[in-house]
Amino acid sequence: MFLLAAALLLLPGFAQGGAVWPLPLTVATGEKVLHLDVERFHFKAIGYESELLSEAFKRYEELIFDTPSHLAEEALRGGAPANTSALAGALGRSRHTRIKRLRVYVGSYDQSLNLQTDESYTLSIASPTSTLQATTVFGALRGLETFSQLAGVEEGVDEEHGQQGLAKHKKHKHKRHEKKKHKKKKRRRRRSDSAFLVRVASIWDAPRFAHRGLLLDTGRHFLPVSALKDTLDAMAWAKLNVLHWHLVDDQSFPYASEALSRLAAAGAFSPAHTYSLDDVRGVVAYARARGIRIVPEFDTPGHTASWGRGYPDLLTDCYNESGARTGAGPLDPTRNGTYGALWRLLREAAGVFPDAYVHLGGDEVDLACWESNPAIKQWMAQHNMRNVRALLSMFEERVLSLAATAGRSYIVWQEVLDNGVRLRNDAVVHLRRVTGKGYRTLLSSPWYLNLGGFATPDWEAYYGVEPTAFGGSSEQQQLIIGGEACMWGEFVDATNLIQQTWPRANAVAERLWSGKDIRDVDAARPRYAEHRCRMLARGLGARPDTGPGFCPQD
Amino acid sequence: MFLLAAALLLLPGFAQGGAVWPLPLTVATGEKVLHLDVERFHFKAIGYESELLSEAFKRYEELIFDTPSHLAEEALRGGAPANTSALAGALGRSRHTRIKRLRVYVGSYDQSLNLQTDESYTLSIASPTSTLQATTVFGALRGLETFSQLAGVEEGVDEEHGQQGLAKHKKHKHKRHEKKKHKKKKRRRRRSDSAFLVRVASIWDAPRFAHRGLLLDTGRHFLPVSALKDTLDAMAWAKLNVLHWHLVDDQSFPYASEALSRLAAAGAFSPAHTYSLDDVRGVVAYARARGIRIVPEFDTPGHTASWGRGYPDLLTDCYNESGARTGAGPLDPTRNGTYGALWRLLREAAGVFPDAYVHLGGDEVDLACWESNPAIKQWMAQHNMRNVRALLSMFEERVLSLAATAGRSYIVWQEVLDNGVRLRNDAVVHLRRVTGKGYRTLLSSPWYLNLGGFATPDWEAYYGVEPTAFGGSSEQQQLIIGGEACMWGEFVDATNLIQQTWPRANAVAERLWSGKDIRDVDAARPRYAEHRCRMLARGLGARPDTGPGFCPQD
Lengths: 554, 554
Known about the structure:
The structure is a homodimer. Chain A is α/β, with parallel strands linked by helices.
């Protein structure tokens, strides 16, 4: 009865829809199509119950029943309009059974979200009983996402809300975070005029890598909380599980620390361009509800010009060859006040960001500035420090030790390692080039989304990357715990964040979730295009990335 | 009293604002700042009146009084928050006079909009009398745009609607074409809590080139009418005056011709992805109200695959070396039916598009397909035609003659000329590489916006182009009537059209409007950034293009 399929096939009766991104580890789909009973369908927790799960139920009911039908642009590529009569014919021949619920079993009450969290799940869609089983609630969230992607709107019965649905979608799109009160009414209307299908399927799924991240940069341009939440939604749809929040940089300090209040008061672009601690807590909670960790980055000792606007003493004065001051450089590693400030910042951050990890940067440090400063040179002589690399080592070791004291493990950019700094065993090294020296590593270098081109399907290159093919022994390869797509913010703000990040980050998401052998870009393209259309249906304006075509949500 | 300025200076008292893009031909600005009397200010037509003008008055009243303050991201680059106290101090020292109206004189009742339209204007902002004078109403539109850019909101008195204004702006942004009923109320509220300033200035302005265009491509992806209207707004703000509408292409035929109804019925992506003739007329009227011509393009004989879905006989069958049919190629130039269909299409289009010009494409024709077709070879032999280039010449000459019969001059891509086709004297050649052979020419090759990169400020390269430096004698250089920025649609649809087109098209706009000596990219950058913030204030999400920074409308 079941057919083991490497890629999910398009199913007759669907206005497309039903292909899953990222591709599950093993999928068996049957030929049968089941109707979701729109009047009565619900998710049903068996045994285990929690707010995380019940809120996810609500979210996925909305995604399934309140979004326009899924229709892949790829399928209609090259221009032929959909041959709906053939689909309708196929539909007529299949036997429908109504399913009224999906039973959800969660094995453990452990709700900790970290590198070790078990995200696996099994999903069986069959008549009369459909079940989702997972060890943790976060595995259940992944399974619900898969279920929502397997569901679609029946072709033909959906005519009434075609254009109307589109208008509704647009409203939905721009009011994603102020829409709650209309939901009930919409659901009822849809129920009466549409039929929802779901494939018969049996899936066992688990991620290949534990850390599947996206870096956003709020130091170069401010991103409003709504843009961060939109991004978290899109990440959850692609089963990405870490938002690496590059909070601050030379250009601005939007993180409104209360412990060091002048950092944002003087370092943000304006008072409107800041995140209060409550804003941050809200983003963290929104992410956790979607099984996404937030790893904050406070990049030091470089990339800190904005720190100096409120606290000039934190920075090193740089001098030119004739001894004239030329400006401010990295944090001053020789003053105790620097470490006092960092401690207050990190201790506070540990109360706001619950994740076990904090990213401490460590890249692109202007060592020449330290070298040019007479007071620093004097300090080094007093402390028998031969060169500024040793000074950097000392700084990093002190900062990393502060993080540890605040109860946090840390991630650092590769330069820290290159500069000979000793790291703790639980450190993670964020690679720009090659694998590290016995530490667990994250890969980002091939996935700098911000470097892409307007007219280039660069998602294909991202997709083709094999994380373990970046050199190193098999032991070193096993130290790769995942990777991150990076969207640096020099040319990105709320106007173009979604369009420039998506759908391209989806390519990285499948690379990090799906099996190593899933790498045929031609086979992936229709699913990739369909998932982009799905994002539009769900209200996010991901750009067209696979050449000419359309989605019904255009 | 007046200071002749090559670039407009930022004025004390303004929350920035007041720099004009594109830069006028001659500008003299004074140090004095005038208050717009928010209760009573209005535009006053003296003598000449028309609907075109009175509608423009309404539009510009809204733009001036209903948009958040202008604040250049560039000025605050590098991070220091605005030093508003210094501005306020400077303001305190300047003497304010309230102005209650701008008198608008238009010299001629001729409202024809074409290559010869006089777009010059003079604008004098002074106390007690401010005047705008222009030969044509379209010149007056350009002057109103300049006036609106010179105006700004006074720093400090605008606090009350800071965040509120932003929220309002967002709504405004996403409902640009369904917002009318809220206007009155908003204006009144603003009037009571803000002060609007305008610089004392004396400007004489006229464009350097008569044809300042933007190409949009609705063949590769459909663009909804609202996206076209948004684009037309942005064009008017930058004084661009031609929308080159690349309507149809291989991938789809969204133009719902009634004369040849199967073109769109079978050739569009879907029935929802079409423009009715009324849709088109609405876009044309919207453009004309902003002084923008619409030049439609029906690309022939290549790029016509979508035509063949409804009318297969129009296309040439292509064959491989063993004589097997391989697919459909360009229009069949040997069948009279081809010309009959083109005539019906062009005659109908002449009734929908009032512009004197139609663009007939002529690029990238697959001559090898014609050569492979036995029937075409036989026809060529019968007509003593030596090669397929001669066949192409014949086709082009017949099509161009049909356009002439329909009362239209034509523009063609350069390949047509390269293929030796004789053109009429009023033809315009759309250059991809070098100047032509005695015909008037348009330049596009350096301005393919769609080829840009996400993280590249490629507007600087666009800005640096000198149109007359593309070879040719001075006579040939004088034949350059302008140029077009091109946004080809392979990777662009409604999700990213605005962000990928703007603000970069503004660089081309200034190149084509302002004097030849205005080419210092560093001097242009703050104005360029300010105009981008102005676009945000007016509700269009142009992307950040000058590196890190912010607008208050972020």
